[in-house]
Write a structure and sequence with these properties.
- The protein is α/β, with parallel strands linked by helices and 633 residues long.
- It contains 18 helices and 33 strands.
- Among the domains are: 141 residues, Rossmann fold (3-Layer(aba) Sandwich); 124 residues, GMP Synthetase, Chain A, domain 3.
- It has a 7-stranded mixed β-sheet, sandwiched between helices. Strands 7-6-8-11-12 form a 5-stranded parallel β-sheet. Strands 24-25-27-28 form a 4-stranded antiparallel β-sheet, with no helix packed on it.
- Helix 4 crosses helix 8.
- Bound molecules: coenzyme A and adenosine monophosphate.
- Coenzyme A (COA) binds next to strand 9 and helix 12.
């Protein structure tokens, strides 16, 4: 581990020097002389005196350096049976026009623009147009419902919502207009205007005075140039799930994001300018921000935007077809996608139908990667399979096997070692470091490297209390795990109420809020139960108010529908049981951990603090009826 160890050590010993050196790899209008400023820790800032533009680094610089005719973006959409590509010059034209259009709507640097779009090229154009003029984009995943959209609108008051007439899921068109209308109705943002991209599959009825048609407006727009912005200005807000129902608006700055993401392309992913990089995720997630949009474009790669699924569009060979047709060098996706493929084509027979000769490496993240999936992918694809661990808050990996620095042995079950910039430690409940191999809270010593979150939007106190209060001097990742004697980190579980469903981060707290708002529900608990395909699935247990006369079946259906309507289909909330009592400690705390073990058919011990041990018998019975708790009696 010579080269890696040297780099890692250097980054921890002299963070400012280390990252100032890396900052020379990107374009600055004014180069920074300062690395990290820790005066107001944990509100640390990077490259404070630098001036920069993220869109310039993603697009213009490549046109100026002679890559104008290179393909920048491939939109591969089996769901609409289309395949389109755009050069860097073509994107520059589209983006600068759309930036001009935003300006004509009165959008200025610092204003928020919400992007609620399916996986179409216009989504990338909208995001980079914001970056071009210094507007702060906030992308909302299309699988979230109107209420979630409204919460985000209320929190960041966007001046414009950029949207499309519809998204397309297998077997159904997702009309966006009713969702946006409802969100605007229930939010306090009546003045917000909308720019709508009309897709042929569905049409949005433009509302006079509020809505503008994308194509018409962009044709008439005056192109806007890149604004000179402070390195510390916000690039985007991305909402993510926390313990409570209110999502956290994770804020990223410009300079830190440009420097770190550009650096990861060579150091972690070992790709070169001109390589084809495919992150099979969605622009609504952090993976999409960092590796469908920014990272590959900062590095002069070709990025692939895929509007399809790993299976069913049309079959479990879809990923191999995309790799062959687009000569993909590197694929990044979530293990759940591979579990879906493996389930449909266990022998990997479809792999053989395609020419994967350009394909070099597979990267997995978004959830714990089970060793079976990793080994299956290694065997079928015959390329290195690299698990890496990261979060919305960090924007790129905390731990990875950095292929561009020094490839290290792959240990299934571990996302490998701390990436340069991250001083990763495991602490016990009292905040003391644990021995190698012992489980505890995974934390990162401050300061965090550039490109990680700088605050939560309009929630500075929550930023401090959620992440920095429990272990002073450290960032609390919210993940539990251990580090072995060779420095390999094993990320095992969350320490909070966040669950991971098919690589999507969701809050059980938010689901509990929805259930408890149902008039017939007296009390409830939602927990994440192990699922073979999606990693975890939410399961709800509810106690009804006395005197309720509706059938239990009707109430269960209403609860499932309510979570779908309030949070969105992506929550995949389909299992709920009505119970008489919930197991609690004598002090009234619901024993979710014990219920989870029962549901997962794992061994469990009767908690010494339980108020009424008999309750667990009923819970086990209910979980069995839902198809869980298979062996445990
Ligand atoms: N807009 C609207 N609805 C959406 C949506 C979107 N952008 N994305 C998902 N949904 C809906 C789906 O249609 C589905 O609805 P349904 O209950 O009516 O069937 C529901 O949300 C759950 O979707 P999904 O999580 O995609 O589950 P699935 O069972 O349809 O497919 C997988 C399972 C494994 C194939 C799928 O989850 C997948 O491709 N995962 C990849 C993970 C990923 O990209 N993670 C990002 C982090 S790297
Ligand atoms: P998100 O913010 O949506 O990217 O989700 C981040 C969370 O996903 C982390 O805190 C982990 O719980 C989980 N996660 C992401 N990548 C991995 C990984 N490689 N191994 C284990 N857990 C992961």
């Amino acid at each position: 581990m010579g080269k890696y160890k040297d780099q890692h050590q250097h980054s921890l010993n002299e963070p400012s020097q280390y990252w100032l050196e890396k900052s020379k790899d990107v374009h600055w209008f004014k180069s920074p002389t300062q690395g990290v400023d820790t005066t107001h820790s944990p509100f640390n800032t990077w490259f404070k005196d630098g001036e920069i533009n993220a869109c310039y680094n993603a697009i213009d610089i490549h046109v100026e350096n002679g890559r104008g005719d290179q393909t920048a973006l491939i939109h591969d959409s089996p769901i609409t049976d289309s395949h389109t590509s755009y050069t860097y010059s073509e994107l520059k034209d589209q983006i600068s026009r759309f930036a001009g259009l935003l300006k004509s709507h009165g959008v200025a640097a610092g204003d928020r623009v919400m992007v609620y779009m399916p996986m179409i090229p216009e989504a990338l154009v909208a995001v980079l147009a914001c970056a071009r003029i210094g507007a702060v984009h906030t992308v909302v995943f299309g699988g979230f419902a109107a209420k979630e959209l409204a919460v985000r609108i209320n929190d960041c008051s966007p001046k414009v919502i950029v949207t499309a007439s519809c998204g397309i899921e297998p077997g159904r068109i997702v009309e966006y207009q009713p969702l946006v209308e409802e969100a605007l109705d229930i939010s306090n943002a009546s003045a917000t205007s909308c720019v709508v991209f009309q897709r042929p599959q569905s049409s949005w009825q433009l509302k006079e005075g509020r809505d503008k048609d994308w194509l018409e407006s962009i044709a008439a727009a005056t192109p806007a140039d890149c604004a000179v912005l402070k390195s510390t200005d916000p690039l985007y807000i991305l909402y993510t799930s926390g313990t409570t129902g209110a999502p956290k608006g994770v804020v990223k700055d410009i300079g830190g994001s440009v420097v770190s993401l550009k650096w990861t392309m060579s150091s972690i992913y070992n790709v070169q300018p001109g390589d084809v990089y495919w992150a099979a995720s969605d622009i609504g997630w952090v993976v999409g921000h960092s590796y469908i949009i920014y990272g590959p474009l900062f590095h002069g790669c070709t990025t692939v935007m895929y509007e399809g699924k790993p299976v069913g569009t049309p079959d479990a060979g879809a990923f191999w077809r995309v790799i062959e047709q687009n000569k993909v060098n590197v694929l990044f996706t979530a293990p759940t996608a591979f579990r879906a493929i493996k389930r449909e084509d266990p022998s990997g027979s479809l792999v053989k139908d395609y020419d994967l000769s350009h394909f070099r490496t597979l990267y997995l993240a978004g959830e714990r990667c089970d060793p079976d999936t990793l080994q299956w992918a290694q065997e079928k694809l015959q390329v290195p399979v690299i698990d890496h661990w990261w979060q919305t808050e960090t924007g790129y990996s905390i731990c990875a096997n950095c292929q561009g620095i020094e490839p290290m042995p792959v240990i299934p079950g571990s996302p490998s070692v701390a990436v340069p910039g991250y001083d990763v430690t495991v602490l016990d409940n009292e905040g003391s470091p644990v021995e190698a191999g012992e489980i505890g809270s995974i934390v990162v010593k401050l300061p965090l490297p550039p490109g990680t979150f700088t605050t939560l939007w309009q929630a500075k106190e929550r930023y401090v209390s959620s992440y920095f209060e429990r272990f002073p001097g450290y960032y609390e990742t919210g993940d539990a795990g251990y580090i072995d004697e060779n420095g390999y980190v094993f990320v095992m579980a969350r320490t909070d109420d966040v669950i991971n469903v098919a690589g999507h981060r969701l809050s059980t707290g938010a689901m509990e809020e929805v259930l408890s708002n149902h008039p017939d529900v007296a009390e409830c608990a939602v927990m994440g139960v192990t699922d073979e395909l999606k990693g975890q699935l939410p399961v709800g247990l509810v106690i009804l108010n006395s005197g309720e006369t509706k059938s239990h079946e009707d109430i269960r259906d209403e609860l499932i529908l309510k979570v779908r309507q309030d949070i969105g289909p992506v929550a995949a909330f389909k299992s709920v049981a009505i119970v008489e009592k919930l197991p609690k400690t004598r002090s009234g705390k619901i024993l979710r951990g014990t219920m989870r073990s029962i549901a997962d058919s794992k061994e469990w011990n009767m908690p010494a603090t339980i108020e009424d041990p008999n309750v667990l018998e009923d819970i086990t019975k209910s979980l069995k009826e839902l198809g869980f708790a298979k062996e445990q009696s």
